[in-house]
Design the sequence.
């Protein structure tokens, strides 16, 4: 058992070490038309910030499409103000869609005229060169993903999630791309060529995690990459209930997608090893008298610390590394218990809108890192 934990720890360290070093910046040879697509649902507090952020992009050939999923607040009113000026395209659904992919596919087919589709979330804050950086990668590939890191360093949960963002959605994804030459597509920060999206049948409506299934399909047939420069800030969940609802949907959708698609065994295995790093750390703690366990523990701790260093995390983020390593295994266990309970009760996992006292209120998001690439 301990030798296996030690092997996993070495693989985690290898992954983060591969993330170091800068890629040569690709020269932008041309400017294909780009469609930014964002689905909104009762997001009156943040939608205007998002629209202004998109309008501030330094890319010349761009259209912004906001797809409203039957909001009941002032979201449509805010969007229509910009649509009347010709600054955005706005689609308002007559009914709410249980699966986000249904609305996304409809809007892409009816409204998108770009050669490239960039998908993100309404709470995202984008660096000014976000579009430009993703297009650079798409000159030589078919789809691209980039880091997603929380900018709301407010509650104990959001602070733990931000540590996780640096590792799972930053360093480990970049490391796997450098090692294996391919990248998963994370829905909050993804670019894909429209003709590729058509060839795979658009977003799948079979699961609640449309990005997970799209990722498996595209990775198996097309060239994917990871752009570490195009970081977006998002609002991470701020309490336990929201975390569990989010993770139940993610895990349920990922399992469902994996059953529908074989995927790349090597990439998938390394992803699981990276994802369970905190669980490996906790297991090692219970056997510290064993030299292999002690070494495994130190290697996994080093992997997390190096992931923060790779993206130049601010000092206060380091204080939450140990809480992340110690608490997340129990949170993952609660997620599995929740999914098992739903299955036993034949209860369907649904998309639950995240809420909270500080969540989606339009508060300023601040980068928890020092990197100069972020200049919204």
Sequence:
């Amino acid at each position: 058992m301990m030798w296996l934990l030690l092997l996993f720890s070495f693989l985690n360290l290898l992954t983060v070490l591969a993330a170091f070093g800068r890629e040569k910046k690709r020269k932008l040879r041309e400017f294909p038309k780009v469609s930014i697509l964002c689905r909104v649902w009762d997001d009156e507090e943040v939608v205007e910030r998002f629209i202004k952020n998109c309008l501030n992009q330094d890319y010349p050939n761009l259209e912004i499409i906001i797809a409203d999923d039957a909001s009941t607040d002032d979201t449509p009113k805010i969007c229509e103000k910009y649509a009347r000026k010709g600054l955005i395209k706005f689609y308002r659904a007559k009914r709410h869609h249980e699966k986000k992919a249904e609305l996304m596919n409809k809007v892409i087919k009816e409204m998108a005229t770009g050669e490239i589709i960039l998908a993100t979330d309404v709470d995202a804050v984008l660096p000014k060169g976000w579009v430009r950086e993703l297009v650079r990668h798409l000159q030589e590939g078919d789809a691209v993903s980039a880091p997603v890191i929380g900018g709301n360093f407010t509650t104990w949960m959001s602070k733990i999630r931000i540590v996780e963002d640096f590792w799972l959605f930053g360093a480990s994804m970049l490391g796997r791309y450098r090692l294996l030459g391919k990248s998963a597509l994370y829905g909050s920060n993804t670019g894909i060529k429209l003709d590729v999206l058509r060839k795979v049948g658009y977003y799948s409506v079979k699961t609640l995690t449309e990005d997970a299934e799209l990722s498996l399909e595209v990775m198996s047939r097309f060239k994917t990459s990871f752009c570490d420069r195009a970081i977006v800030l998002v609002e991470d969940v701020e309490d336990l209930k929201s975390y569990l609802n989010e993770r139940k949907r993610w895990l349920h959708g990922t399992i469902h997608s994996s059953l529908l698609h074989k995927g790349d065994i090597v990439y998938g295995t390394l992803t699981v090893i990276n994802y369970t790093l905190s669980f490996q750390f906790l297991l090692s703690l219970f056997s510290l008298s064993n030299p292999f366990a002690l070494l495994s523990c130190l290697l996994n701790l080093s992997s997390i610390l190096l992931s923060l260093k790779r993206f130049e995390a601010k000092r206060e983020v380091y204080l939450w590394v140990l809480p992340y390593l110690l608490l997340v295994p129990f949170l993952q266990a609660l997620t599995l218990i929740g999914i098992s309970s739903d299955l036993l009760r034949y209860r369907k996992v649904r998309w639950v809108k995240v809420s909270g006292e500080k969540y989606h209120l339009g508060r300023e998001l601040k980068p928890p890192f020092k990197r100069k690439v972020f200049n919204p």
User: Anything to note?
Assistant: Residues 156-180 form the longest helix (25 residues). Residues 2-20+28-344 form a domain with the Spore Coat Polysaccharide Biosynthesis Protein SpsA; Chain A fold (CATH 3.90.550.10). The chain has one domain: 2-20+28-344.
